[in-house]
């Protein structure tokens, strides 16, 4: 059975995304990465622009969660170190930095965000039209 054009494009998209994530991961120092037979989970958030340019904006690895006896609610211990959680934390840092640039530069031209006033006079931020956020993950 012949693959449809959409299925072929989805496979190409997946390869492009995987290549970008693995390229960034491999460029990082060995410290903290699995060695030998060790494995981990790798997760990444990517942004794609209206022109389909794709950029890795957050990356995380990990498979651990501390035991219930060590849980704390005061913020001095990382409770969950799964790859998706670490990548989400990096994503939030990226978002905060983008919003800070948008505010500091009165409409940062290259930001993925745009701002608008909400009904109560506050400012609301949203990703600009045409941009898409993607979550990617695998075992390494």
Our estimate of the beta-strand percent is 25-35%
Helices and strands, in order, run as HEEEEHEEE
Largest sheet: 3 strands, antiparallel
| End-to-end gap | 32 Å
Q: Which regions have little confidence, pLDDT < 50, spanning 5+ residues?
A: none
Q: Name the quaternary structure.
A: single chain
Average pLDDT, all residues: 85
Radius of gyration: 19 Å
Entry keywords:
A_deamin, 7 strands, single chain, alpha+beta, 32% helix, 140 residues, two-stranded antiparallel sheet, tRNA-specific adenosine deaminase activity, three-stranded antiparallel β-sheet, globular
Give a written overview of the molecule.
- The protein is built from two helices and seven strands; from the N terminus they run H-E-E-E-E-H-E-E-E.
- It has 140 residues and is an alpha+beta fold.
- A hairpin with a 5-residue loop joins strand 5 (113-117) and strand 6 (123-127).
- It has helices at 5-27, 83-104, and strands spanning 41-48, 54-61, 63-65, 80-82, 113-117, 123-127, 132-139.
- The mean pLDDT is 85.
- The protein starts with a helix and ends with a strand.
- A three-stranded antiparallel β-sheet has the order 2-1-7, sandwiched between helices. A two-stranded antiparallel ribbon has the order 3-4. It has a two-stranded antiparallel sheet with strand order 5-6.
- Pfam families: A_deamin.
- One of its GO terms (molecular function) is tRNA-specific adenosine deaminase activity.
- One of its GO terms (biological process) is adenosine to inosine editing.
């Amino acid at each position: 059975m012949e693959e449809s054009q959409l299925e072929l494009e989805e496979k190409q998209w997946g390869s492009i995304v995987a290549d970008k994530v693995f390229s960034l991961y491999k460029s990082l120092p060995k410290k903290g990465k699995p060695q030998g037979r060790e494995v981990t989970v790798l997760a990444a958030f990517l942004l794609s622009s209206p022109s389909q340019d794709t950029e890795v904006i957050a990356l995380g690895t990990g498979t651990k969660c501390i035991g219930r006896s060590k849980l704390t609610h005061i913020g001095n211990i990382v409770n969950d170190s799964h790859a998706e959680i670490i990548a989400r934390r990096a994503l939030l840092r990226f978002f905060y930095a983008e919003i800070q640039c948008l505010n500091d530069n009165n409409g940062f031209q290259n930001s993925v965000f745009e701002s608008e006033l909400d009904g109560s006079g506050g400012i609301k931020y949203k990703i600009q039209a045409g941009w898409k956020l993607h979550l990617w993950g695998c075992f390494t």
